[in-house]
Write the structure tokens for this entry.
Amino acid sequence: MDFFDQMDVLERTFWFIALPSSLFFIIQTIMTFLGSDASDGNVPDFDGDFDIGHAPFQLFSLRNLTHFLLGFSWTGISFYHYISSSVVLILLSLIVGLSFIALFFFLLKAIMKLGEDNTFQINQCLQKTATVYIKIPEKKSGVGKIQVSVNHTIQELSAITNGDGAESGSLVRIIEILDNQLVLVEKI
């Protein structure tokens, strides 16, 4: 306690906020890695009641309060001896605390993108334009290959046509899906 007796009231306040919030953050982090902070297997703060539009994020939560207090208090402690104005120090601490919440929001948003299901579904190819990769013979007399862009990836599929054949590099439209890797196309 002698450590705190030598401090100004503002510096002591920053320390009294920093120590419990840091301890709580460490416990919260350990619980997150152990998986014991999620009641139904979902990540906390993702209960579907979004405070900011359609964001995967709850603005007023214990986790965000902890992040804010960490940024606020440790900024105040770090810059206490360098910034003489209490008002400027508190404003800087508030800005850093709010930026911790914003950083957490953007990290969660990026992590949520990693969870998207981008597996290829051949049904998504219907009515798409594709490029002939290997010549498609006319009137179902043989199989060629096409390349089609689906979900920002290029897929290669076998293709046949009812009408005229299609040369390599020409454009075709997928008009019917015949099986998992075979489609019916028409020239554009």
